[in-house]
């Protein structure tokens, strides 16, 4: 829905809301995000993961948000405010502006039908972030096989330093916590309310997404 006249407050800044969605549990959306706009992903009820993916608009899915490049250049798996997310072509895609939680995952792929078969032993149909993403991206010309590792916002994954084993705990997000990112190029963005039981402390909740432009935020975007 369009909310062009709505104002959105965040510490030290005031923004005009361009669009806003409430994503129902175990579903997803995709939408354009223009260079300089901010996307805010909010956990309205707490302990809910949102899978996030972005492609450069007009690239036919050939330039995408890269886990490997972003982690490599930041030299940390725990990306937070102040870090930049890069594409597979090493171009800046998104700048992390605000992070109320400080723990997100960029290692694990979006849950898929195979996830529930292999990890959960589920043989019947189960909603998945992979399906929700590819169905949402399809109208934008992006094929299922083009969806890579997602930024799993609010997902709490700990790594054992000695063994490398991963432990998935309940998200640390509280009701109203958010992550804000500024687009460094024109993008097509996909967001889900994650469908994996283990990731969400075994209760599925909605996710809220807001696109806004800040009037009091000095933008320092690179020249194209």
Short description:
The chain has 224 residues and is mainly beta. The chain has helices spanning 67-74, 113-118, 129-137, and strands spanning 7-10, 13-23, 28-33, 38-43, 50-56, 84-86, 92-99, 151-153, 156-159, 166-169, 177-183, 187-192, 207-214.
Provide an overview of this structure.
The chain is mostly beta strands and 224 residues long. It has one domain. It is 10% helix and 34% strand. The strands form three sheets. A seven-stranded antiparallel β-sheet has the order 1-2-13-4-11-7-6. Strand 6 and strand 7 form a beta hairpin.
Question: Could you say which structural class the secondary elements and strand pairing correspond to?
Answer: mainly beta
Net shape: globular
Residue runs with pLDDT of under 50 for 5 or more positions:
1-5
Task: Report Rg.
Answer: 17 Å
Strand content: 25-35%
Report mean pLDDT, rounded to a whole number: 93
Distance between the termini: 30 Å
SSE order: EEEEEHEEHHEEEEEE
- State the total count of DSSP E strands: 13
Helical residue percent? 10-25%
How many domains in all?
A: 1
Number of helices: 3
